[in-house]
């Protein structure tokens, strides 16, 4: 039988391509959008990470989700610095979640509160993605909008405490493979991972509608 890490990776591959090639992401990576679109996207991420990371306290001791809770992953402080840079010191006052973002964050919170396996699915979808494709987004953002390399505006993509992302990802996959749940629960987690990708794609769709290239 395939390892759980390859199972979850393979199962979400198709949706990964969909997210990666969404109109909003393509336009963002293609340098065709203004910094306002990037800021709006960063604001949406704040709601998602707020949901993911406000749960870490009570999940740290959980036998299934606990091993994934690692302080070097936490993104909220970096996101807040980016938002202060992008929107100014009053960034909190103007912060609003799109309905799709609200739905995504609500689902993360629901899993965090009642289903540790589901939380792992959301954790994997975000953090492993940020450690991978996130680096491509950072590079494009620096070039398109002139942020300092790994500086304010793109700190979300910089994992200061992870010296070797490739090694970290290997370790993360080992944690996935060591997850202490039966095959049925593994299937459920894979299903939640697909849902997590769909929730991300829905946010991209909404952002694409807010920032169309042709008015
Ligand atoms: C333009 C956007 C994106 C690009 C260019 C991109 C690129 C990549 C690349 C190159 C990898 C492979 C890393 C490796 O093999 O170690 C990867 C992995 C991953 N990406 Fe993305 N990605 C993007 C968007 C997303 C989004 C929106 C999500 C979900 C929210 C996501 C989630 C993931 C996950 C979970 C992995 C880890 C797969 C695994 O090894 O288990 N990515 N991405």
From TrEMBL:
Keywords: Heme, Iron, Metal-binding. SUPFAM superfamilies: Heme oxygenase-like. It holds the Pfam family Heme_oxygenase. InterPro entries: Haem_Oase (IPR002051), Haem_Oase-like (IPR016053), Haem_Oase-like_multi-hlx (IPR016084). It comes from the Bacteria. The keyword Acyltransferase does not apply. This is Biliverdin-producing heme oxygenase. It comes from Streptomyces pyxinicus.
């Amino acid at each position: 039988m395939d390892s759980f890490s390859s199972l979850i990776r393979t199962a979400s591959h198709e949706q990964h391509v969909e997210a990666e090639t969404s109109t909003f992401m393509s336009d963002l990576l293609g340098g065709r959008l203004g910094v306002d679109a990037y800021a709006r996207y960063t604001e949406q991420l704040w709601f998602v990470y707020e949901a993911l990371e406000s749960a870490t306290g009570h999940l740290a001791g959980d036998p299934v989700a606990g091993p994934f809770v690692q302080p070097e992953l936490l993104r909220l402080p970096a996101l807040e610095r980016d938002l202060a840079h992008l929107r100014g010191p009053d960034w909190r006052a103007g912060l609003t979640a799109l309905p799709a973002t609200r739905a995504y964050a609500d689902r993360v919170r629901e899993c965090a509160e009642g289903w540790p396996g589901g939380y792992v699915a959301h954790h994997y979808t975000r953090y492993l993605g940020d450690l991978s494709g996130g680096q491509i987004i950072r590079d494009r953002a620096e070039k398109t909008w002139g942020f300092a390399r790994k500086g304010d505006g793109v700190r979300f993509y910089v994992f200061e405490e992870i010296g070797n992302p490739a090694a970290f990802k290997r370790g993360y996959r080992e944690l996935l493979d060591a997850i202490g749940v039966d095959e049925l629960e593994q299937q459920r987690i894979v299903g939640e991972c697909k849902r997590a990708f769909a929730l991300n794609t829905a946010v991209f769709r909404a952002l694409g509608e807010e920032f169309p290239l042709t008015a």
